[in-house]
Automatic annotation (TrEMBL):
Record localization: Mitochondrion inner membrane
One Gene Ontology cellular component: mitochondrial inner membrane
GO biological process assignments: mitochondrial electron transport, NADH to ubiquinone
Family note: Belongs to the complex I subunit 2 family.
Domain of life where this protein originates: Eukaryota
Swiss-Prot/TrEMBL catalytic activity: a ubiquinone + NADH + 5 H(+)(in) = a ubiquinol + NAD(+) + 4 H(+)(out)
NADH:quinone oxidoreductase/Mrp antiporter transmembrane domain mapped to chain residues: 26-283
Main function: Core subunit of the mitochondrial membrane respiratory chain NADH dehydrogenase (Complex I) that is believed to belong to the minimal assembly required for catalysis. Complex I functions in the transfer of electrons from NADH to the respiratory chain. The immediate electron acceptor for the enzyme is believed to be ubiquinone. Core subunit of the mitochondrial membrane respiratory chain NADH dehydrogenase (Complex I) which catalyzes electron transfer from NADH through the respiratory chain, using ubiquinone as an electron acceptor. Essential for the catalytic activity and assembly of complex I.
Transmembrane segments: 12-36, 62-83, 110-132, 144-162, 174-192, 198-218, 239-266, 272-293, 314-336
Species for this entry: Graphium mullah
Name by which UniProt lists this protein: NADH-ubiquinone oxidoreductase chain 2
Residue ranges the record marks as coiled coil: none
Lineage: Eukaryota, Metazoa, Ecdysozoa, Arthropoda, Hexapoda
Length: 337
């Protein structure tokens, strides 16, 4: 297993999986709401840990914020049933539905709970909240898109994701702001095409799973821990490759969905938005390179009591995943030219 977690929580993990399927396959708004509530109630036991106060605090914060978003969503469903005929009211309802879904995802400007909760989670739970927990709110949001409102949200996401990533020493908080930044790309991909959104989500989930696996394997939670670990060349190389791919540097795999999105924006004369996206990606790359630079260039302090056991199987997985990210150049030659 990539991540070790209690087998007693496997039941809640399966409910988490099926609740998303309930939510996205429902024919009514009320069914969607029920799926979201089951999803919330199944994720809290996965977060909470009686031996860790930070996890218990994170579970409580997550419950409160998601409950507020669910109450808003339920209230808007009832408003929609009563006041659907008026066009102005209908436009307002679409903004409110989008807002409640954005709050559930941890999107800007409703993002304040997201980094604080991730700070108290394990890497496996961080991976779930950054990938799987975004699927049902995004699909529900796609039923009732308000393009003018979401354009502002998208720009806020990419800017706040970059600004929050500066001066962060915690890797979990840094990855959470990276998730907010990528959420901006995902929302605009959803506005363009659902297939493009699915491709972006798959690519992002793949890259973020490698990073969470690496950090979990090395037991790293803060940037200064990178100086204390005697990492071999394979791990340092995979850090660099996967961070550059996650940032969207052209030869790598993570660049493809961003390339398609930028191409679409330029073709539709949305030059200012594409300029903001490209500039924010460059700044995000600087933040990623700073972490890679720390792990590769700086001297490490080898502690006598510090032991990290790296199994050959784990190193094999790291090498395979890193090569997939690196082979983005070959994919671009054959599929995107």
């Amino acid at each position: 297993m990539f991540f070790n977690f209690n087998s007693n929580k496997m039941f809640f993990f399966f409910i988490l999986f099926f609740s998303t399927l309930i939510s996205i396959s429902s024919n009514t708004w009320m069914g969607c709401w029920i799926g979201l509530e089951i999803n919330l109630m199944s994720f809290i036991p996965l977060i909470s840990n009686s031996k860790n106060l930070l996890s218990s605090e994170a579970a409580l914060k997550y419950f409160l914020t998601q409950s507020i978003a669910s109450i808003n969503f339920l209230f808007i469903i009832l408003m929609k049933m009563i006041l659907l005929k008026n066009f102005e009211i209908n436009n307002l309802i679409s903004i409110m539905i989008n807002s409640s879904m954005l709050m559930k995802m941890g999107s800007a400007p409703f993002h304040f709970w997201f980094p604080n909760i991730i700070e108290g989670l394990s890497w496996f739970n961080c991976f779930i909240i950054m990938t799987w927990q975004k699927i049902s709110p995004m699909i529900l949001m796609s039923y009732y898109l308000n393009n003018n409102f979401l354009m502002i949200i998208v720009i806020l996401n990419v800017i706040i994701g970059v600004m929050g990533g500066f001066n962060q020493t915690s890797l979990r908080k840094l990855m959470s702001f990276s998730s907010i930044n990528n959420l901006g790309w995902m929302i605009i991909a959803l506005m363009i095409s659902e297939n493009l959104w699915m491709m972006y989500l798959f690519m992002y989930s793949f890259l973020i799973s490698i990073m969470c696996f690496l950090f979990n394997m090395l037991n790293i939670y803060f940037i200064n821990q990178l100086f204390l670990i005697n990492m071999n060349f394979q791990i340092k190389f995979s850090f660099l490759i996967n961070f550059l791919s996650l940032g969207g540097l052209p030869p790598f795999l993570g660049f493809f969905p961003k390339w398609i999105i930028i191409n679409f924006l330029i073709n539709n004369n949305l030059n200012m938005i594409s300029f903001i996206f490209i500039m924010m990606s460059l700044i995000m790359l600087f933040i990623y390179i700073r972490i890679s630079y720390s792990s590769i260039i700086f001297n490490f302090f080898k502690m006598k009591w510090l032991k990290i056991f790296l199994k050959n199987n784990n190193l094999l997985f790291i090498n395979i995943f890193s090569m997939i990210s690196l082979l983005g150049m070959i994919f671009s030659t054959f599929f995107f030219m």
